[in-house]
Automatic annotation (TrEMBL):
Alphabetized InterPro entries for the sequence: Ammonium/urea_transptr, Ammonium_transpt, NH4_transpt_AmtB-like_dom
Protein name per Swiss-Prot or TrEMBL: Ammonium transporter
GO biological process: ammonium homeostasis
Region of interest (Disordered), ranges: 1-21
GO MF annotation: an example: ammonium channel activity
Transmembrane is among the record's keywords: yes
GO cellular component: plasma membrane
Family: Belongs to the ammonia transporter channel (TC 1.A.11.2) family.
Length: 479
């Protein structure tokens, strides 16, 4: 989300936000927006929020039926718990511009608010809304890696606190005063701050929780999807949202920016085509001519993650290649994690973490310097004659972001576990989180048999009152 520092000529409209921000020279450049820019960013923020639907469908489709409601509830709480903490302190630690800010953490604008008389009100709320849509997305990435064995109450605490894991490194990359930004790092839409951070947090979560009961008793082969149609529908929604994710990160459409919003959308699609080809080749080769649903899904998602950092800095063929390689990294590392007995039910570590690292590094190799945008600060990637500097900064960004997110997540979960156990009890995991945490009972998935065997661990009288979903006869008091 590099802001375009070459601003268009101000309009004569009295309510042009650019005119207003120029009255306050201390305001950071990210607030230098016209009305058209604000409209573009707000609209894209609305679309990005629909990605929560995509994550929910994808993750619920990947887990067993007895846990599908639980994973949807986690995606639900991520929005209002993570959104609240982003308003309370997250935005401040990324973009706060008081005199106390420094290259490692922002400061100011806690519990964000503004008065109607503030000439910067529109720009402030526009930037906040757009950035909050990114923050909630980064938090949601982690939920899939914790699926089917995480205590819901502990997860709520984690969701409330996980904002800080994302917001501090986001400030490093995107804040005017962030140390990586000052060094010249380029990450337009978040391969690093969103996906590397989310993916490495997912890895830490999977390690802290340990594998699901019996996951590797019969080998490391992938588990069957609970609802493949849900998973594919989730991909379609995420695909749609990604266009807003990347195109919206030009931070407007005025001046030269409108050219690059269109280019970002096309390069995003081309990269996903390359990822689709790789996913198809991989699954046909690995499965002797059969196509596994999850291979195609994660191939496309890995390619989208890979192109996000430099979405409008590439040529068409470069975008296809970057997506192709990103999908390959995703597909190969998923079974590798299972071989290591790291149980990530939806592949969040591979899709977001590993492909995100490639996406950040790819900028240092393939990025071109747009002549009318300051996105790369005049630098180009190694293969465009730019030398090693940009590649080195991009590699440093990967190291900083992955180290921070992995270690801070491990520490957060360790502290939460001291208060509320982060893992379900074995008998609760066998019954399923839907029943034991949400009183949702499924038929035909073995829950009734497990209840009979494990009856002494539960209040049988209470559980006998829980009716299976889909059995409502239409009369409220008919039993």
């Amino acid at each position: 989300m590099e802001a375009d520092q070459q601003q268009p000529a101000p309009s004569e409209a009295s309510n042009d936000v650019t005119n207003n921000t120029r009255q306050a020279p201390a305001i950071p450049g990210i607030y230098e927006l016209t009305q058209e820019d604000s409209n573009w960013m707000v609209t894209n923020a609305f679309i990005i929020f629909t990605m929560q639907t995509g994550f929910g469908l994808l993750e619920s489709g990947c887990v067993s039926l007895k846990n599908e409601i639980n994973i949807m509830m986690k995606n639900l709480v991520d929005i209002f718990l993570g959104g609240f903490t982003y308003w309370l302190f997250g935005f401040a630690t990324s973009f706060g511009h008081s005199t106390l800010r420094n290259p490692f953490i922002g400061w100011g604008d806690f519990a964000l608010d503004s008065t109607d008389a503030d000439p910067n009100m529109g720009a402030l709320f526009t930037v906040f809304l757009f950035q909050m849509s990114f923050a909630t997305t980064a938090t949601t990435i982690v939920s899939g890696a914790m699926a089917e064995r995480c205590n819901f109450k502990a997860y709520c605490i984690f969701s409330f606190l996980n904002t800080i894991v994302y917001c501090i490194p986001a400030g490093w990359v995107w804040s005017d005063s962030g140390f990586l930004n000052e060094m010249g790092v380029v990450d337009i839409a978040g391969s690093g701050p969103v996906h590397v951070v989310g993916g490495m947090s997912a890895l830490a979560s999977a390690i802290m929780l340990g594998p699901r009961l019996g996951r590797y008793d019969l080998g490391t082969a992938a588990m069957p999807l609970g609802t493949p149609v849900n998973a594919v529908m989730g991909l379609f929604v995420l695909w749609w949202g990604w266009l807003a994710f990347n195109s919206g990160s030009t931070l407007g459409v005025t001046g030269a920016k409108w050219h690059y919003t269109a280019k970002a959308a096309v390069m995003t699609l081309l990269a996903s085509f390359g990822g689709g080809f790789m996913g198809l080749f991989y699954t046909l080769l690995r499965n002797a001519g059969y196509v596994e649903v999850i291979d195609l899904i994660n191939g496309v998602l890995g390619s989208l993650v890979s192109v996000t950092a430099g979405c409008f800095l590439y040529t068409s063929w470069e975008a296809i290649f970057i997506g192709f390689v990103g999908a390959g990294i995703t597909c190969v590392t998923m079974p590798l994690l299972d071989w290591l007995h790291i149980d990530d039910p939806v592949g969040a570590t591979s899709v977001h973490g590993m492909a995100g690292m490639w996406g950040v590094v790819a900028v240092g190799l393939f990025a071109s310097c747009p002549p009318d945008m300051s996105t790369t600060q005049g630098r180009s990637g190694l293969l465009h004659g730019g030398g090693l500097y940009l590649l080195g900064v991009q590699a440093l960004s990967v190291v900083c972001l992955s180290s921070w997110s992995f270690c801070s997540t491990m520490l957060t979960l360790w502290l939460i576990d001291k208060v509320v156990p982060i893992r379900l009890e074995p008998h609760e995991e066998l019954i399923g989180a839907d029943l034991v945490e949400h009183r949702v009972k499924h038929d035909g998935v073995g829950v009734a048999e497990a209840l009979a065997v494990l009856a002494e661990h539960f209040d049988s009288a209470l559980l006998s009152q829980v009716r299976s979903i889909g059995t409502n006869p239409g009369k409220l008091h008919e039993f």
